[in-house]
Structure formats: structure tokens, C-alpha cells
Design a protein that fits this description.
The chain has 121 residues and is mostly beta strands. It is built from no helices and 11 strands. It is globular.
């Protein structure tokens, strides 16, 4: 599975961005992770593309929303009320294995995009 992210950029605190991730083929789990300099990669939002199962990191609940266009193998991350601590490289992850997608465990996602930078000032 090849993943291509887009939509990152620089915004001021309180602003919004929408990230997109297109997968080359169907994946059971698709999600968003982020990694700030000197920190480990962490899960942000993930979903089972075939079931009503979505998970969010506590730090983004109420501000970020993950959604999908199933026919296009695409997931989106709408990010509102962005904060400086949201600054990171955002990666799209996916797997074709049956996993608990909403648990946002990095090791459960086997395919990764190249990342898109989000900077909030």
C-alpha cells in the first residue's frame, strides 16, 4: 500500500488545516500519527474503514475529526483550533491486517506515507 499525504502548512494558533491521505489500495485501518522533533511518533486519529470504529488521542478530542471517502481509499483529518503543541510532522498510516485500528498503536500500522509538516505559531 502506498500512501500520499497532502494538506500540511503553517497556521496561527486557533486556525484550521485539513490533511488528506490517498491509499493505492484498500486498507482495513487508516490513521494519522505525528512526530515532533525529539519525540516518539504518536497516534492522533485512526479508523476502521469498514466498521464504525474511530479513535482519537485525548489531546485532540473535540478539535480533530477523521473521515473517509471509502470509494477513493482516502482519509482526511480536519484539524480545528490548532495549538502550537500540534506542531509536528504528520504521517498517514495503514494496514491490511485486522487490527484494533482505534487503539492507535504505531506497531499495528504497517504502511506509512512520507509525512506532511504542520506548524502552528
Amino acid at each position: 500500500v502506498q500512501l500520499v499525504e497532502s494538506g500540511g502548512g503553517s497556521v496561527q494558533s486557533g486556525g484550521s488545516l485539513r490533511l488528506s491521505c490517498v491509499a493505492s489500495r484498500y486498507a482495513i485501518c487508516m490513521g494519522w500519527f505525528r512526530q515532533a522533533p525529539g519525540k516518539e511518533r504518536e497516534g492522533v486519529a485512526g479508523m476502521d474503514t469498514g466498521r464504525p470504529s474511530i479513535g482519537y488521542a485525548d489531546s485532540v478530542k473535540g478539535r480533530f475529526t477523521i473521515s473517509q471517502d471509502k470509494a477513493a481509499n482516502t482519509v482526511y483529518l480536519q484539524m480545528n483550533n490548532l495549538k502550537p503543541e500540534d506542531t509536528a510532522m504528520y504521517y498517514c498510516g495503514a494496514t491490511r491486517r485486522q487490527r484494533l485500528c482505534a487503539n492507535l498503536r504505531t506497531q499495528d500500522y504497517h504502511y506509512w506515507g512520507q509525512g506532511t509538516q504542520v506548524t502552528v505559531s
